[in-house]
Design brief:
The chain is α+β, with helices and mostly antiparallel strands. It contains four helices and 19 strands.
């Protein structure tokens, strides 16, 4: 009989504790949140992109309130998972891996965000996809360009952050902050007669002021000869500049 009363008393205490937990949960109006992450290396081009994709532990997480003042940062998603209860309301989850200002080859940064609502005593599953946060730039020259500038050429990429890269013989894209970039360089023009030295000319500068994230830019230098030699610059197969080599480049030439 004593055992029965002891068990009944313990059961009553347990039920009371559970009741208190439910009451406190309802009072706080909290719900559980589970975040799942996917990454995508897609860009708006058919070109094949090769880059190092970050793993889950590389992503930092920020939770912000939508329409009200709330913000909390976590070093990783697993840190959030350890205490993943939020008060009811509307939120935005943002994940970041890498630093978009750390420009260079295979320097991809990823970012993604998703909004979600939290309801009391419910589990909310949030799916976030992180995309490449950089603009990608690749500089090419055609065979006709190399044939005309038989003495060689040099090309330089300068980013809005002031970083400079030699892209004379570029084979892989450079990941840069999505802002602006400039392509400049020189080339050695073929001599007019046998034995004459080539002439170093300054190539026309190409500047893009609207480089966007998750976008691949291919800048190509070419020489076309339709009666007169023309230097053409194309961006993603679209002509952006055409210059008469004989007239324009000679104005900026310097003796080699």
């Amino acid at each position: 009989m004593k055992k029965f009363f002891a068990f009944a008393s313990l059961l009553a205490l347990t039920l009371s504790a559970c009741s208190d937990d439910v009451a406190q949960s309802e009072q706080k109006g909290e719900g559980q949140v589970t975040i799942t992450l996917a990454t995508s290396a897609e860009v708006d081009t058919r070109a094949q992109i090769s880059c190092t994709t970050p793993v889950l532990e590389d992503f930092a997480l920020t939770i912000e309130g939508v329409g009200y003042d709330y913000a909390k940062e976590y070093a990783s998603i697993s840190e959030f998972d350890a205490d993943n209860y939020l008060r009811f309301g509307q939120y935005r989850a943002t994940v970041v891996a890498g630093d978009v200002m750390n420009e260079g080859y295979d320097k991809a940064a990823f970012v993604g965000s998703a909004e979600f609502s939290v309801s009391p005593r419910q589990n909310t599953e949030v799916e976030v996809t992180a995309y490449i946060a950089n603009a990608l730039v690749k500089v090419e020259v055609t065979e006709a360009f190399e044939t005309y500038f038989v003495g060689g050429h040099t090309l330089k990429l300068t980013t809005a952050a002031g970083n400079e890269f030699d892209v004379t013989e570029q084979t892989e894209p450079i990941f840069i902050a999505p802002a602006a970039f400039t392509i400049s360089g020189t080339a050695v023009k073929q001599p007019n007669q046998s034995g004459a030295e080539g002439t170093v000319v300054t190539l026309p500068e190409y500047k893009n002021d609207e480089a966007k994230a998750q976008t691949f830019y291919t800048v190509k230098f070419d020489v076309e000869n339709a009666g007169r030699a023309q230097l053409t610059i194309t961006l993603n197969d679209t002509l952006v500049e055409s210059i008469d080599i004989e007239q324009e480049l000679n104005d900026n030439s310097e003796n080699a």
